[in-house]
Amino acid sequence: MTTQVNELLYTGRTHTTGVLQARSRSADGRLDVELSAPGSGGGGTNPEQMLAAGWSACFILSMNLIAQKRGLRLPTDTSVDAEVDLCNTEGNYDGRFFIRARFTVSLPGMDPDLAREIVDTAHETCPYAEATRGNVDVTITLS
Questions:
Q1: What pTM value is reported for the model?
Q2: What is the C-alpha to C-alpha distance for residues 88 and 39, in angstroms, rounded to an integer?
Q3: Strand ranges inside the chain, DSSP E
Q4: CA distance linking residue 16 with residue 33, whole number of Å
């Protein structure tokens, strides 16, 4: 499926080298991170942590955009705790690998019904949610 692009807003560029111990660098030099396989005990972060960080940041930006369009401001202490699980259907790495995600969203002081509406709309519009919809089980809790 090809989606019509009316405006390209940004392109993230990285170069990653290595296998179980890897390094990823962005073209602009702002990101330079050591990567390790999940559970390997290596010194770097792993793809699941990177996905959790990127997805939660994107989710907050989506909530902020929705709030702004409604003339509202998100609380300054808005937060998203993200958990991304790497799973296997069979165990012993014999089955199909997949991920699932859980988000706990905190919008302190906001009316609970309004907070739920913003969270639900963000889940419909966040680019990460769009990219994973139908492929990743996502649970979102409002704290």
A1: 0.88
A2: 14
A3: 14-18, 21-26, 32-36, 79-88, 97-106, 137-142
A4: 9
